[in-house]
Amino acid sequence: MTDGFARPSPVVVPGGAVGLVIGGYRLEEYLGRGGMADVYSGSSPAGPVAVKRMLPARHGSDHLVDLFLHEARVLSQVSHPNLPRCIDFGLSDGVPFLVTALVDGVSCELLLHGLAGTRGAFPVDVALAILHQVLLGLSAVHEARDDRGRPRGIVHQDVSSDNVLLGRNGSVTLIDFGVSRSHSQGNPGGTSGLRGKIGYMSPEQILGEHVDARSDVFSAGALLCELILGKRLFGAPTVLGGLLRASRADTDELGDLDPDVSTAEREMVLEALARRPTQRFHSARAFDRAVCAAARVRGSPIDARGIAAWLATRGVPAKAHRTSARATPAVGNLAVRIDDAERVLLDGRREVDAGLSAVEAPVASASLPALSYRLREPGVHTELHCSLADVVERVVTGRVSDGTLLGAGRSPPVLLGEVPELVRVARVSKAWFDSEVGRPPRWRSSLDRASLPGMLFMLAETRATGLLSLRAGARRKLVHFDAGVPCFVAGSEPSELIGARLVAGGVLPQEALDIAVARAVEQQRFLGELLVEMRVLSASEMLRRLVTQLDTRVLELGTWVEAQMAFTPGLKPGAVIPQSLGVPGETACRIVRRCYCDSEISDFLRLLGTSALTPARGLPGAGQPLPLLEAERGVVAAADGCGDIAALARRMAQEHALPAEATRRAVFLGLSAGLLESPAWVSPLSTSGRGTHR
User: Fold this and answer.
1) What are phi and psi for residue 445, nearest 5 degrees?
2) DSSP secondary structure letters along 337-361
């Protein structure tokens, strides 16, 4: 009794509320349970309804109550035949409930399970007809406006096979807006949690970046693939593995598509599933136009008739078991009823932090042997005593050699690569650090900080795929590029490893990391998966930290002062690592902004003297604009006809109040990217022989 009203006894048994009367609706049949509510079919004087009742154990959380209220608001604001019709909302004994029209039918997920023993997938024409109606519902949601004509900005965020209901008459209803977001609420899922279902979420949703209607387009594409394939497109043995595949938009499973799927239909699916939102259909309606065009080519019906006919062949007859003479009317002013419930539930209550709670050190269910290891390098007589975690750290940072000897406990030392539990990690690490052996590099050079950004822009401009290696004594860094974007980094710095970063950030103590590393070695598992299993981090938080780790390791390039560099085209890392949605050229821009001070840039530009700046002929990056800031683009545009850097800086200060150091940085970026030219500046882009680095 901390919030001003009595709590009913929690119903812990699923379906235990059958027979109760909730707000005037008798609960007749238990339909299922979600993350925060049970769903029942119900009866009312006006006809059958669906009643979504929040779990008593959940309504003490302001965060979950807010999600429940938000769903009610969305459904009361958007009306469409392919969306649930909101009928009523209220409180019963302090527990919120939502009443919608009842869909008498079955979910796509249940049908997929039923098909598993036969063909295992929906016919392509039926799948297209279903997706057509889903996209119509999504279009209504995405295009909804408030009373003043402003976009509501609603994104469903949970388009999945179990949230698509097929009525016996062939109708399609997209349900469950419990994790949707809109302009009025922001992101109800928060930044630390992940809302949605693995296998359907877009890369930007998984990575915690900005989501809009194109995120639902991706999910709809994943749904279409599941219907046609009979299995989830981004399936994996572990949660982290599934998130990783979806975050990279790994479409390898499309090779199993029905041969009946045409080339044009495959291209349509790939456009919906593009990793970057800018490369997808720009809206659900645009995706729907492509779906309708595909159906026309097939000559198949796109309406409910074809779906109903197919359902009948699957044992779902068109005649409904529960019917009503007329549509159940909405009760009173729904907006007022929802606001009233919010005041009762939330006003004056202490905010509940819905984020991740502090994680205690994981406790090992069975302690692993605390062996002491002895490490000895060839030609060295002294031994280094260390833990297994220390040994693994040295292996994955390339600080061991083929002749390194390792002894466990009192056992005589053997070659490290022959220790059974270390064979896999040693082989993988050796593949990283020896990947250049026997492969002639495209080019070699000494690191020059003035030309480093230009070299990175060159890799971006040519959409290079291959390995950039840097070596300075024992210090090494290997950066793999895929189509001009960094996708994997290995290096000799232990502080860059994910475990070390988690310890340094206070996420877990060193002892817990040692336990996790030992388990990962023993079980031949990826450390990140094991930390998720130990509940150190959620799968989504682990994935986002891995993305941050990759970005940080790449940006560290900007701190190198001297090194020997080489680029070997065609080499791929052989490891799947999550990466951000960055575009080619973004790495160079971020390195200059973060790692190059004004005095250093001024020294570089002093070589230009009073030489005039001119726009480059045939702008590099014309196919995809470089990720410059607005002020930087303004400087590049103003350079034409402005004379030298000093004159340009004066103009930008007078007309735009831009500091001189910002102008110099923009000029340096423009010259490095080949957007600007000067007789005294040689850009790597002008001497690279474009297109030769793939």
Assistant:
1) -165, 165
2) HHHHHHHHHHTTPPPP--SPPPPPP
